[in-house]
Amino acid sequence: MNSPSLWKSTAFRRVGFALTFYSFCSWMLVAALPLFVAQRFGTGPELVGSLAMRLAPRILFAPVAAELIRRAGPRTPVCAGLVATALCLVAVVTVAHVATLQMIVLTIGLADTIIVPGLLALRAAVVPAGRNMEANTTFQTIDRLAKIFGPPTAGFLMIVVTPALTFPTLAAGHLLAAITLFTSVATPGQTRPEPQTANRAGLFREAMAMMKENPTLWVLVLPALGYMISLGALQPFLVWLNHDQFGLGISMWTVLLAAQGAGAVLGALVSNRLARTLVDERQLLNAYLVASLLEGITTLALVFVPTHALATVLLIVGGIPEMVAFAAYFTLIQQRLSLERQAVFYALSLPLMDLFMVAGVLTGMLHSAGWMTLRQFWFLTSAAAILPVLPFLALKAAPQNDVRGPKSPL
């Protein structure tokens, strides 16, 4: 018997629409910001610094944001963060100095520190019981559709129209997301976790207890950290690949971003089919590891392609296993942890992920400063995504007689 559509749930629909507005505008900003920096200040350290500035606050202030979300519930802080981001985006077009721009980007990063975990909490609260894989695939599909259409739209507006209209448009999208969430009716007991007194030490102790009780989390987190290094390096890499290796205008790099999103939409079809067959933890974990490895190998191969068209195809192919890995990751977390423990897990794992992503962005300095060729730089960062997966796959392939107890991660 077919289950009713997820979109028939009012709570799911509200969060889905808000996520659509936010994801589309966020991916537009991912493309628009480097284009704006390149047009006004160049593609050197200024570009790398601006990308890193948006991520840095999420590393430093994530525990504070987590405590705010736990006390106030996620909806109000997320709405406030969306409004703050909108105000910053209106101010971007007035800047004349790179330092001023980076302060604005830093403020947007502070708002992201609240918005990202808050939306994850809202997502988890509206997922119907037993439909985790399907719901997570839906949410990831929204994000990847935004990745397909957002960057090219931003490129078109930045090049054909003007930044003076592009950034206010992004601001309006963030305001729409805030209005959608703020006017929704909260479901009692879902969107407001019980207030607790928490601090860094308390969160860390609770997280360590979770990891000890659920060794599977290590299998999820360690490959994900390597993936984040590669993902952080991917943005400047695609800019340089497009410009230096293919000799194309900077706006064409948005096509490469969109290609990865297109692959993820195809991956959503695969994930939906897998959702019907991957029902136990071991199957989901195997799918996560294999998909992570395939995604890492396809992105590594980018450095060998001779044309923009082939790079586009390869990014589409790589986006398919990326989507499967994402859906399996969030499904396993939701299966293993309660909503309250998910909040703790994200409070510490998200800043850690962001730290590794910033590390990936900053490795771009190795190329921009002339210390590494583009190929050497990409080999280094791609290895970070591939190598952490291999030990777990080797353990999976080994005889399982000694690792079948409840504590076994595989």
From TrEMBL:
Its main location: membrane. Keywords: Cell membrane, Membrane, Transmembrane, Transmembrane helix. Pfam families: MFS_1. The chain crosses the membrane at residues 21-41, 78-98, 104-126, 217-238, 250-272, 284-304, 310-332, 344-365, 377-395. It comes from the Bacteria. The keyword Ribosomal protein does not apply. It is a multi-pass membrane protein. This is MFS transporter. Gene3D superfamilies: MFS general substrate transporter like domains.
